[in-house]
Amino acid sequence: MTVLTIDGLSKTFDMHVLGEKQVVGLDDVSFEVDDGEFLAIVGESGSGKSSLLKCIYRTYQPTAGRVVYHDTGGDVDLAACPERDIIALRDDAIGYTSQFLDEIPRVPAVDVVARPLCEQGVPNDEARTTAESLLSRLHLPEELWDAYPATFSGGERQRINLAQAIAPKPRLLLLDEPTSALDPETRAAAIDLLQEYLEDGTTVIGVFHNRDVIEAVADRVVVLADGRVRQVVPIEEYNGEVFA
Ligand SMILES: Nc1ncnc2c1ncn2[C@@H]1O[C@H](COP(=O)(O)OP(=O)(O)OP(=O)(O)O)[C@@H](O)[C@H]1O
């Protein structure tokens, strides 16, 4: 079954400060994503990887094209549906994490991770137990669980970010360089965790700058260049360009 159909997706940015100049983020991007697959997005810096994830999550409003999420209850065009539908899907079905943690002042790390579960109605104790288990799996030292992430290092924040995105077990997980600041051991722990989620049926679209991560988990690779799809290939046929 297909989870997502991206069809003719384009995003241009109007740069008012540059005298109405337009910057192309994505240009006529089309591909499909199957249920339970891990799709890696690769490309040079500025090729449109983050813009693609943001258009799917609707942080960016696409300029043209469709992003059809195939829900059990019917198809939803994420590029055009009302904001309330997007918010409901984010609560329930689509997770996103970027390299940067959205600061929530004075909320301990464990509660930042537990929060999406509590919002789904999971009792607080149970949500905290799940959060602690994820933080432990991602090697966050226990003395930091009750500390505020505002003071954390980049790699520590990244672990909170990843744990928070995966805690509710979304059907579709969008990951924008979630392991870039992690040491190799913690990165390996994150890969193990993602592999378990994949086995449970989660679909992942991820941007990774480490070839080893892609080779460990990806089923297919989408190569972007200048906002366009250069190729979509099974991992066995991916020649590692971009990482050479
Ligand atoms: N909010 C924005 N306003 C204006 N231009 C933007 C915006 N976001 C992205 N762009 C432009 O769109 C193009 C694609 O950017 P994007 O961040 O998607 O690339 P990327 O492949 O994720 O790059 P990197 O690997 O460096 O993170 C770039 O030219 C970028 O300058």
TrEMBL record:
This is Phosphonate C-P lyase system protein PhnL. Gene3D superfamilies: P-loop containing nucleotide triphosphate hydrolases. It comes from the Archaea. One of its GO terms (molecular function) is lyase activity. The lineage of its organism: Archaea, Methanobacteriati, Methanobacteriota, Stenosarchaea group, Halobacteria. The keyword tRNA processing does not apply. Residues 4-244 form the ABC transporter domain. InterPro entries: AAA+_ATPase (IPR003593), ABC_transporter-like_ATP-bd (IPR003439), ABC_transporter-like_CS (IPR017871), ABC_transpr_LolD-like (IPR015854), P-loop_NTPase (IPR027417). Keywords: ATP-binding, Lyase, Nucleotide-binding. It comes from Natrinema soli.
